[in-house]
Amino acid sequence: MTARPQIKGWCPGALRPMAAEDGLVVRIRPWGSEMNCKQALALADLAARFANGTLELTSRANVQLRGVDPVHLAKLQAELEAQGWLDASPEVETRRNIILSPLRNGQFDGPKLARDLARALAAADAPRLPAKFGFVLDTGSQRLFSGVSGDIRLEPSDCGMMLRAQGVRTGCSIQSEAEAVARILDLAHWFVQSGGIGPDGRGRMKEFVKSNSLPQDLQGTLKPLQNRPAVVGALGDGQLVGLRYGVITSDALRRLATQFDWIRITPFRALYLPAGNLPDEASFLTDPADPFLRVRACTGAPGCLQAHGITRGLADTIVSAFPSQGLLHISGCTKGCAHPAPAAWTLVARDGAYDLVTGGNPWDDPVVRGVPAADIPNLMRDL
Ligand code: SF4
Fold first, then answer.
1. Does domain 18-90+230-284 have CATH number 3.90.480.10?
2. Residues flanking ligand 1, CB < 6 Å
3. Where do the H-state alpha helices sit in 164-211?
4. Are 347 and 334 in contact (CB under 8 A)?
5. How far is the CA of 346 from the centre of ligand 1 (A)?
6. Closest ligand 1 atom to Cα of 311
7. Which of 337, 354, 363, when mutated, tests ligand 1's pocket best, judged by the most ligand atoms within 8 Å of its CB?
8. Regarding the domain delimited by 291-381, which CATH topology (the fold level of the hierarchy) does it fall under?
9. Which of 14, 205, 226, 383 gives the lowest tally of CB atoms within 10 Å of its CB?
10. Neighbours of 98 (CB within 10 A)
């Protein structure tokens, strides 16, 4: 197996950005995974003034700016504060790791629940959770997030909403938003107090419940509804619009903001928008058969310090040679940020050339090594 680069164990935030080759990465956590049109216009403006003119959606339904000059960070943070996007401290920001369904047609008021949970997690007596510990509020009438990582999950079942620990197949019934917040905190406290956090400060629910039983009152027999695949197109009262590599330019965001009242961020590197015509924009993926929907590519070179080669530029040139089914992941190194999971084909940059892993992770043993970028189209045609 190939060595996997060191995982930092924390994600960048707006108060604690991460350094990259092209400047700081500043990650913003919009409340309720939603921006109104004024906020979206402001964010487009900030991306143009302080970053590289684009915004990236993350798999945690956040938005990040890249290429921020550290000299301008304080001014950028002041403008984010004016939009109400800053938390009280980096610790509170890290704990607000909440993904909310874009659907607003469920039993609970999702935005209120997300806000109440965030407030509870910011309290002085809130559980001190690991940086990657997350909450999934799948509060629409349809379940969307079965493939989205989250340690504590609120999901629809045949008998109303249910609470489930990741790694446990069943959960308990939840009757109200207030009960949801209280039980989520109970589960988080149990995780901490029962030793879910290791000496390195890390820990995930899925691993912990393999050898630790939940308290009786947090167990249940409800099963979540079958998941609805996140396919671009009509969904609920709105539409899911994919973004090529999860990236949108500030100009494209501005055009959306002048057309729609709100924009919701999903963990699918796609936006959820009201129904209606979209502005013409090449990066919007609206055809479920678009091959770019089956491509994952991280920032790669030159933006990332750890990259061994380009990623998105390579994907642009080989997408037409790409097989008609299966996921292609192009990773700038073996860390696999864009898709830390198996894919049908994974191209991993190494010293300026590419290794190919089939049916595995970027850090697995490749079946082909050291292919120059110019030869990748032929390699893909032969798959
Ligand atoms: S996977 Fe890509 S973005 Fe992540 S560290 Fe490696 S090169 Fe950088």
1. yes
2. 298-300, 304, 306-307, 331-333, 335-337
3. 177-193, 205-208
4. no
5. 13
6. 2
7. 337
8. Sulfite Reductase Hemoprotein; domain 1 (3.30.413)
9. 226
10. 24
